[in-house]
Specification:
alpha/beta, five-stranded parallel sheet, two-stranded antiparallel sheet, about 45% helix, globular
């Protein structure tokens, strides 16, 4: 991930871009098509993010890796799909695109209609996960994510919209759950693959 580009200025911002270039060069050497641009962890608001994201897109073009913007529901800066679309609009770069995340959609003010309205060319990667079945939306943290199918997110509707749009890109399981981390990684991966096939093939 690329960090510190959205909350710094002056020399610190230049250092953030230098680190971004280093990571993008490494990403390109590894053959990774995308790299994620993470919004500020503590800064309120997203009014200036389009400027930094525009710079990251240009660095990515030079390095050979595409910079993808991510919104994170638990951050006070960029935390929902409509605001992320606003950043792309202000950026004015046709290559601007998003990582969307089922958990962050559900845990923010993002609606299924917001997802339906997103142009396909602005959707580059999909993180899939589920939410703790006993906690309400807007109150959960990354660590509250559970295995796909064990939570309360309407994943079937979200997948149906992606299929309607013709999305044929990556779908990656992303779980920040200490209980799952403590289990055998291979067994967790097998279960995750089974659940994903059940959901995507439905």
């Amino acid at each position: 991930a690329l960090r510190n580009w959205g909350e710094t200025s002056g020399r610190e911002y230049q250092l953030a871009l230098e680190e971004a270039r280093r990571r993008m060069d490494l990403s390109a050497r590894l053959g990774a098509e995308f790299i994620v641009c993470t919004p500020p962890l503590e800064q309120l608001g997203f009014d200036a993010l389009h400027q930094g994201y525009r710079d990251l897109l240009q660095i990515g073009r030079e390095a050979g890796t595409k910079a993808l913007l991510e919104y994170i529901s638990v951050f006070p800066s960029l935390n929902n799909l409509p605001d992320a679309v606003t950043v792309l609009d202000r950026c004015g770069d046709a290559e601007g695109a998003l990582v969307i995340d089922a958990f962050h959609n559900w845990n923010s003010k993002t609606s299924l209609e917001d997802l339906r309205a997103l142009p396909l060319e602005r959707l580059a990667h999909y993180h899939i996960d589920d939410a703790d079945p006993d906690k309400p939306a807007l109150s959960q943290l990354d660590s509250d994510r559970v295995m796909v199918g064990d939570g309360q997110i309407d994943l079937h509707s979200e997948i149906a919209i992606l299929k309607e749009k013709g999305y044929a890109g990556w779908v990656s399981l992303e779980l920040f759950n200490a209980e799952l981390w403590a289990q055998d990684p291979l067994e967790v991966a097998k279960l995750g693959m089974e659940r994903l096939h059940e959901l995507l093939d439905a």
